[in-house]
Amino acid sequence: MNEQLQIVEIGDGPLRARLVNRGASVAALTHDEIETPLVLGYDDPAAYLTDAEFMGAIVGRVANRIEDAEVELDGARHRLVPNEGPTILHGGPDGTWAQLWTLEAASETEARFTLTLADGHMGFPGELRIEALYACSGETLSMSLTASTDRATFCNLASHIYYARSPDARLMVPADTYQPVTNGIPDGDPETVAGTRFDYRTPSPIASPIDHNLCLSRHRAPCREIAVLDEPKYRLAIASTEAGLQIYDGGHLDLPGGIGGRHYRAGDGLALEPQAWVDAPRRAWADQVILQPGETYAQETRIIVTPR
Question: Is S-adenosyl-L-methionine there in the keyword field (predicted)?
Fold first, then answer.
């Protein structure tokens, strides 16, 4: 195994998490009273070194898509590095998800990772210093993401965990609006979910295909419940401070080497990614992602698992 790859397990039971420093990723999540894995991951940790599906990783410095891979800030234009046709996705081909983070400290219940992205990395202005603190105790996995910069920049981090799902899974998200998209880029302003397949205000089967952002609030808010994945044998709730929740059904998954030797395919996982709204740097909601020197980006997200 690559000597730079580090693995740490945290949790005092019944919930336990395995983390790897490539992407500061959640590689496994298990509960003593639930027989099946709660997330998708790789059997061989070395597979994370070449993973291109953002498996369990922290993605950024700007999660999701930016149209035409170009942004403007304080009157200056910045050409970014595209990695999805003309679009930049999840911070580019060398974003936070592709980096070997530094494992600064670990204990039975906590692990702290840090990463510094240089000024100009992937075309973005400003040196960005990021910290990811994971804590796992009881039936809750918490992640605290913080960042600071020496120059005005954009910051929008997201946890890209693929949650395992069964055909009987139902999803609840208390969002009144969503972002219609073409090729992942918003068509305009958010629209009501009423009468659409994106209405998850009551628990509903997951409608595929879906790779859309549901708008929870205009700005970041105190940590509150933003999603519930109801499975026959457990309830998985996500609470977060974030203004949006990107839902991706893993429609392009075709990955051998999964946990327990599984070959993951479309429908095996569901990414629920707390983050800002899509294409924020180029839109009227850019204030969601602008980070100035002296400010601290701060996201809190909690995953609570309750067996039935």
Answer: no
Domain total for the chain?
1
Q: Is residue 93 part of a domain?
A: yes
- CA distance from start to end of the chain: 38
SS3 state at 69: helix
Residue 300 has a CB neighbour count (10 Å cut-off) of: 18
Q: Does any domain span residue 190?
A: no
Q: What is the DSSP string of 110-139?
A: EEEEEEEEPTTGGG--S-EEEEEEEEEEBT
SS3 288: helix
Model confidence band, residue 1 (pLDDT cutoffs 50, 70, 90): very low
- pTM (two decimals): 0.97
Q: Which domain holds residue 161?
A: 7-165+250-307
For 18, counting Cβ atoms within 10 Å of its Cβ (0-12 exposed, 13-18 middle, 19+ buried), the class is: buried
